[in-house]
Amino acid sequence: xxxxxxxxxxxxxxxxxxxxxxxxxxxxxxxxxxxxxxxxxxxxxxxxxxxxxxxxxxxxxxxxxxxxxxxxxxxxxxxxxxxxxxxxxxxxxxxxxxxxxxxxxxxxxxxxxxxxxxxxxxxxxxxxxxxxxxxxxxxxxxxxxxxxxxxxxxxxxxxxxxxxxxxxxxxxxxxxxxxxxxxxxxxxxxxxxxxxxxxxxxxxxxxxxxxxxxxxxxxxxxxxxxxxxxxxxxxxxxxxxxxxxxxxxxxxxxxxxxxxxxxxxxxxxxx
Length: 271
What we know:
Radius of gyration: 18 Å
Number of domains: 1
Shape: globular
Largest sheet: 8 strands, parallel
Distance between the termini: 9 Å
CATH class: Alpha Beta
Number of strands: 8
CATH topology: TIM Barrel
Helix content: 25-40%
Structural class: alpha/beta
Low-confidence stretches: none
Strand order of the largest sheet: 1-8-7-6-5-4-3-2
Mean pLDDT: 95
Number of helices: 11
């Protein structure tokens, strides 16, 4: 069985005040508290999806964590989303995407240098459909990010087929298993391990996913203890096929992710 690490997708949210963090905790002390007081030894860095952070910012984050802490960094949307977003009037051209890759690699270098970079998460959007062009794009991402382990998350259910998993296995790319609402077009829960990393990302089961007023309320969901326990056999299967297993809760609204992650850590002690 592989090493299993549990954490949350992000750590700095205003509605975690009084629910996860003390009301008077300084913002610059949140990551330290997350690591040392809450006892989490890994973090999925989501801010990097929205903006390309500076190496200086990454270095400051790294210095606030213990030696065995790991950062899993979500890839910038200018690489994974914008090139395929039909709503954008102007999509990024190849030169712009290459620049995004360069700046993204620079931003994660401090984590990598300190051996705290667990992997890169590439989450592709619901409008990213399976096809040869899309597979070639994934392989291009692999080439650009060749120094880092990669985990691929799909949002479109058409990727949920054996052909996808064989493609990932053949190219040493790890698959992100997701738990999200059972809605049309969204990925179902499919327990597959295609690389050295097993990865489970829990988004919650809010049925208002597509009608949510904002991204925060989309993930407004709290897993019951029974729901969490139902994942234990699946996690055991996953960890038996991988070198390392990551479990991240993305239901960050009102601190639910931190509470669910803490409970999952406790449940996993039976392994």
